[in-house]
Design goal:
With 189 residues, this protein is an all-alpha fold. The protein folds into 2 domains: 155 residues; 33 residues. Helix 5 runs antiparallel to helix 7. The protein has 8 helices and no strands.
Length: 189
């Protein structure tokens, strides 16, 4: 989890670890749910659900390895839906399938067990051990970055932009109509 990462980075129970977890974990979790919702709204319910489900694991203060079980159906759903989802995101299906393969590889490799982890040794990891020891979290963050970039490239922000432009044009038209109505009313007097 993000809390585990920041606890290893700043020390368990420190204000820095807690604050970083709240800020980064919160922002990342909201982003994950947004990507999942975008996928669901485009008919990719299974992929959207499993993407959003991992928000709980990232945001949780404690995430044991078996909590990451959500990544297995996510990798399968990503692989299966790649030909449909990739064009929506302006990506090649092979890129999404490679990403699904990366997630599966990280899960199978179980590399986080290679880093020292007994007797509080994880609190003194070097940078390479930090990467290896946080393999699940980092692989999922890569997945989120690619999916998030695809969502933005695929026009996810367009409805908000179009909505704002539409509101602006309606407000402008309303303002012109009210000033036209005022001038005609004053002419009628």
């Amino acid at each position: 989890s993000a809390m585990g990462f920041f606890s290893r980075l700043y020390g368990p129970g420190t204000d820095a670890a807690s604050l970083a977890w709240l800020l980064v974990g919160g922002v990342v979790s909201v982003a994950i749910v947004a990507v999942g919702a975008w996928l669901v709204l485009r008919g990719e319910r299974v992929l959207g659900f499993f993407t959003a489900a991992l928000a709980v694991v990232v945001a949780s203060p404690v995430a044991w390895t078996h909590h990451w079980v959500w990544a297995v159906p996510l990798a399968v759903a990503l692989w299966e839906s790649a030909p449909r989802v990739a064009p929506m995101m302006r990506l090649a299906p092979g890129h999404l399938r490679a990403l699904a393969g990366l997630v599966a590889l990280v899960l199978v490799a179980d590399a986080h067990w290679w880093a020292p982890g007994r007797e509080m040794k994880e609190l003194h990891w070097n940078p390479l051990q930090m990467v290896v020891g946080n393999d699940y979290l980092l692989a999922f963050l890569v997945l989120l970055l690619v999916l998030g970039a695809g969502v933005v490239r695929g026009g996810a922000l367009a409805p908000w932009r179009e909505g704002a432009a539409s509101r602006d044009s309606r407000a402008q038209a309303s303002g012109e109509a009210s000033s036209a109505g005022t001038s005609s009313a004053s002419r009628m007097r």
